[in-house]
Amino acid sequence: MQFSSELLESAVNAFSRLPGIGRKTALRLVLHLLKQDESEVKSFSETIARVRLDIRFCKHCHNISDSDACSICRNASRKKELICVVESIRDVIAIESTQQFNGRYHVLGGIISPLDGVGPDQLNIESLIQRVQTGDIEELIFALSPTIQGDTTIYYIQKKLTDFPVKVTTIARGIAFGGELEYADEMTLARSLQNRLPIDRYVMR
Asked: What span, in angstroms and rounded, lies between the C-alpha atoms of 150 and 117?
């Protein structure tokens, strides 16, 4: 793909580094921006910069936040004794869209995957254990993608929680094994949350 402008080529290269954006789509986006008012483009670029510079992560659950604590953790109407453990922030968004969960969350930031070089120390597991140690948590719902890596992560954390009187459950098998949680439809997610199972009936040994 030939460009008559180095600035245009640079912009296309920048957009094409985004997930799911090829060079043709990147070019279409850049050309669209060129048609917009300068003020709109400036506002767009400033918003993107602020996303990277100003957004924080909640000190309690590691969800995206505008302050030290996210809006979910600050919401007094949410059940603080009920924690849904998820892999990523995208899973929080997916579950929230069902409007069927009124507890709080804990974002692990990934799942244990030795082949990908991801071990327990690279995840937000220790902070989850610390939350359970406070004694305020009555139930942990594991809402991880039903894969071997997801099961391994649940089993590892369950072992670290054996000395604590906390109920450990997982979402029902409405989510197909090997599937990704974020791609499940809202009804399936909602039913999986409502029909959650004791962890001992689910995780493979």
From this structure: 15
